[in-house]
Amino acid sequence: MNFKRLFFLILTFVVAISFIYLSSSIKNISMISALVTIGTENTDYNLLVKNMSKDPSVGEETKIKIFIGPYKDLRLSSGRLEYDGDTYYIFIDSSFYNSINPDEKEVLIAHEMGHISHRFTKIDKLKFWFWRIFTESASAKYKEELIETGYQISADDFAAKHISPEATINLLNKLYPSEDGRKSMDYKVRMLNLATLPKEALQKH
Ligand SMILES: [Zn+2]
To answer: Which of 38, 63, 153, 155 has a 20 to 30 A CA-CA distance from 78?
Structure first.
């Protein structure tokens, strides 16, 4: 391969990656504004959010807004964290929210806040792309699940520390009500983590 060809190949690659990066940011911002429109802003947890923001993994300057709406109808999860480059949005499904008790509601919010420090970054997404292209798809999917569960664990730890491990366990059981769901790696590993959390991990700052 001559240098000219190599140069164009690299250029094409860089342009493609930039395009993917830019279009995914635009898509994300338009999705956030759609989810904001569908839901209602909830300010009941402002004090709790403010207190939990003191955790160095979040930061007091971080802007966080909570919206509750029929997000499961859109096939979204019970709770979801999005970032538009300025503010973090916690989107909570209204039917799930109405089915849980006050402690579990706080855990749900704390869990989503826990995702602020450990988020699925664009770099992670790129890594998965390459795994999918260059490795056998089953093993790529497994790696993706493993990393995703790792993120869930750190968010659970944050919730256990700021609310309580018991309420975090209760919420996890409500997120996985079926026997089939409880056979998943995500449920088993997260439950094991919560059941064996060391005392030091629960010390508030
Ligand atoms: Zn989560």
So the answer is: 63
The CA 76 to ligand 1 mean position distance, Å, reads 12
Which residues, 6+ apart, have CB-to-CB distance to 117 below 8 Å?
57, 58, 154, 158
Distance from Cα 73 to the centre of ligand 1, integer Å: 18
Interval between CA 131 and ligand 1 midpoint (Å): 23
- Give residue 189's pLDDT: 94
pLDDT, one tens digit per residue, over 8-36 is: 999 998 898 888 777 777 878 889 999 99
Report the separation in Å between the CA atom of 152 and the middle of ligand 1, taken as the mean of its atom positions: 5
Strand, coil or helix: 92: strand
Contact criterion met (CB below 8 Å) for 84 and 108: no
Residue 10's Cα: distance from chain center in Å?
33
Total domains in the chain come to 1
Residue 147 structural domain: 3-202
Beta-carbon contacts of 40 under 8 Å, excluding residues fewer than 6 positions away, are 67, 68, 69
If DSSP codes are grouped into helix, strand and coil, which group holds residue 179?
Answer: coil
What is the C-alpha separation between 152 and 146, in angstroms, rounded?
10
SS3 199: helix
Task: Provide φ and ψ at 196, rounded to 5°.
Answer: -120, 20
**pTM, rounded to two decimals:** 0.82
In the DSSP assignment, the letter for residue 83 is: E
